[in-house]
UniProtKB/TrEMBL annotation:
Descriptive protein name: DUF1275 domain-containing protein
Matching PANTHER family: DUF1275 DOMAIN-CONTAINING PROTEIN
InterPro entries in the record: DUF1275
Alphabetic keyword roster: Membrane, Transmembrane, Transmembrane helix
Keyword Cytoplasm: no
UniProt xrefs under Pfam families: DUF1275
Amino acid sequence: MRTAPATAGVGGDGQRSLRAMLILLTVVTGLVDAFSYLMLGHVFVANMTGNIVFLAFAVGGAPGFVWWASVLAIAVFMLGASAGGAVFRRGSRPPHRDLLIASVIQLALFVAAAVVAFVSAGDLRAGYDEPAMAVLIVLLGAGMGIQNAAARALRVPDLTTTVLTLTVVGLAADQGRERRIGPRVLSITSMFVGAVVGVVLIVHEWVPWVLVLASVIILAVVVCAWMPPRGHRPPAR
């Protein structure tokens, strides 16, 4: 069991590299949640708080919400998070190496999802059919679960890659005290930009390319994580 963050002992260059990679993964979150909400039956594959609310909407009879999609997204997200957690429980590997393993798995899932998105593309103004929706939710939800487990294990302040509520609270509640305005604003902006780009691609009927772009960004994270950071020493246990 870790008694210190996984990033303990990582030098300045390594910390900056980790932050950059988590920012990229935050952009991925914006992209895929735009895709999943608009194309997969009003469901999030990254934001589980939203899915709990959407499930309640569906159970209550609100139009446009699919109960099974929210249940499936939550279930596969948990499976992905479990797999990601297992990666980070494996011992004394440097955090970059752990993130590399998690990101390679996530990349494989996203590439598979992009292939499904292209193969299943028909009249996308009507969205994907239910079998394609289910497969895409499984692949993307599992990938985002892995990503969130990685971010949770690394515990880099204000860079969860998904949950922004506490980040926004921190901007407001920490006024007059030592603040981390830069990372917080960057985290919020990254998700916003990812979502905007995702919506623009969807509106212009480049729907599957949202997942291609997300996969390219994850590939960039894999490449960065593959490069050994300087100044690493084993984290305290």
